[in-house]
């Protein structure tokens, strides 16, 4: 596998650069037969779909862990475990309160700074059940393909836990909000799909594109608007690491939704895209605790928004997004924290 990737990458190096311009045509099989991407270090990788292993060769087995934080144990998470009989016990879970679940993407973990920051912001604001999903043992696989394939399994495990919470405690899907970044957004899509009740909301933070949107997968194999009552998506590296098309009920396109996001400019392509990709969770984290809203404007496209044609219908990107929001919303941000511009156009 490693050898195949290296060889293909050498052969198609130029095409990867070409494809990176985002004017992807399918003439050369890009997106249907092969795909290239950069990892966090800017190293180029090419995936040849017909050369992908079709059995468990290369699979890394690992666990999925659920950590509950509340105001009573804000720095001392409780590991939630579902017994064989479907019972989940918890000392801290409060069924009368809303539940937020957070998860990371490729090579991430539940300890990622942005997750811990969002957890803290949520608990500062209200007493909630915050569940951090740690699937690091699977996400750490250096082979993106395997990490991507694991999202379905991880999502199913989370759905199982949430189903058990509904059965064991007096709580409902209407109180649940799942938030995931990149591959973590795909995890949450699967969790919503496998959950047996109505899930209130899923927020996709620049949901992973390779192997979900490109090549185009059916809706049951990627986060889409049917996975919860309200699915909102923040696009910050659209067409590369993140979703380019709208797949939510409300899709937010800060600064047009593509790379480079303001403040991420530079020579190193991998760095620029990673920085832009991360903006989605930085914006969301800020929206939890900041009083300045990310006011966003419903519009047909970014050009129309920039031309000032769309001022009638607004929503707020991030945590305060109105669940009735529907369509594509555009906004500008600042180039560094604090990012939100409020109502400033
Ligand atoms: C990126 O570089 C760091 C530091 O050298 C290394 O630990 C990490 O594994 C690299 N990531 C990938 C995807 O190769
Ligand atoms: C992908 O692999 C198949 C089978 O090994 C090969 O026939 C094909 O030429 C490869 N395509 C690319 C783009 O490398
Ligand atoms: C949380 O702490 C409060 C105040 O100390 C206490 O009244 C409450 O019972 C605790 N709740 C749980 C679930 O431990
Ligand atoms: C943080 O990392 C430690 C050590 O790897 C691990 O045991 C723990 O489960 C992680 N916590 C979360 C919330 O992911
Ligand atoms: C279950 O929760 C609902 C809504 O929070 C509440 O009205 C009801 O009294 C609860 N039932 C029990 C048995 O705790
Ligand atoms: C943001 O823009 C200001 C004004 O143009 C500039 O001084 C600053 O260096 C920029 N910050 C970043 C992180 O790019
Ligand atoms: C936008 O706002 C206008 C004026 O408030 C309203 O008439 C119209 O129905 C709204 N359009 C959408 C798509 O929500």
Question: Would you kindly provide a written description of the structure presented here, covering whatever features stand out?
Answer:
The chain has a single domain, classed as Rossmann fold (3-Layer(aba) Sandwich). Helix 3 (113-125) runs parallel beside helix 7 (269-289) and helix 5 (144-168) packs parallel to helix 6 (183-194). Mean pLDDT is 88; it is low at 1-15 and 17-26. With 345 residues, it is α/β, with parallel strands linked by helices. It has helices at residues 2-11, 13-19, 113-125, 136-139, 144-168, 183-194, 269-289, 302-306; strands at 34-38, 44-48, 65-69, 78-80, 99-103, 129-134, 176-181, 201-205, 230-234, 250-254, 294-298, 314-317, 327-331. A hairpin with an 8-residue loop joins strand 3 and strand 4. One 2-acetamido-2-deoxy-beta-D-glucopyranose is lined by residues 263, 335-336.
């Amino acid at each position: 596998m490693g050898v195949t990737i290296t060889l293909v990458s050498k052969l198609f190096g130029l095409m990867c650069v070409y494809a990176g311009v985002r004017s992807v045509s399918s003439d050369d099989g890009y997106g249907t037969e092969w795909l290239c991407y950069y990892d966090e270090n800017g190293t180029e990788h090419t995936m040849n779909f017909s050369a992908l292993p079709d059995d468990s060769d290369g699979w890394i087995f690992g666990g999925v862990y659920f950590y509950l934080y509340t105001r009573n144990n804000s720095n001392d998470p409780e590991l939630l475990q579902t017994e064989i009989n479907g019972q989940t016990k918890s000392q801290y879970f409060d069924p009368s309160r809303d539940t937020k679940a957070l998860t990371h993407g490729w090579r991430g973990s539940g300890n990622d700074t942005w997750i811990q920051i969002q957890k803290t912001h949520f608990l500062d604001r209200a007493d909630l059940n915050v569940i951090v999903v740690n699937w690091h043992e699977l996400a750490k696989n250096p082979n993106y393909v395997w990490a991507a394939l694991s999202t379905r399994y991880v999502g199913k495990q989370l759905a199982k836990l949430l189903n058990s919470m509904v059965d064991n405690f007096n709580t409902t899907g209407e109180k649940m909000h799942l938030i995931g970044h990149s591959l973590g957004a795909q995890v949450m899509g699967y969790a919503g799909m496998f959950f047996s009740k109505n899930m209130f909301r899923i927020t996709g933070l620049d949901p992973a594109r390779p192997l979900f949107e490109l090549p185009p997968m059916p809706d049951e194999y990627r986060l889409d608007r049917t996975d919860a009552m309200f699915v909102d998506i923040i696009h910050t590296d659209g067409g590369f690491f993140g979703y380019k098309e709208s797949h939510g009920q409300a899709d937010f396109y800060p600064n047009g939704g593509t790379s480079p996001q303001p403040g991420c400019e530079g020579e190193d392509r991998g760095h620029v895209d990673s920085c832009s990709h991360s903006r989605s969770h930085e914006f969301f984290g800020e929206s939890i605790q900041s009083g300045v809203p990310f006011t966003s404007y419903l519009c047909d496209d970014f050009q129309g928004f920039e031309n000032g044609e769309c001022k009638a219908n607004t929503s707020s990107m991030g945590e305060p997004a109105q669940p009735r929001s529907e369509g594509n919303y555009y906004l500008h941000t600042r180039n560094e924290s604090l990012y939100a511009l409020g109502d400033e156009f």
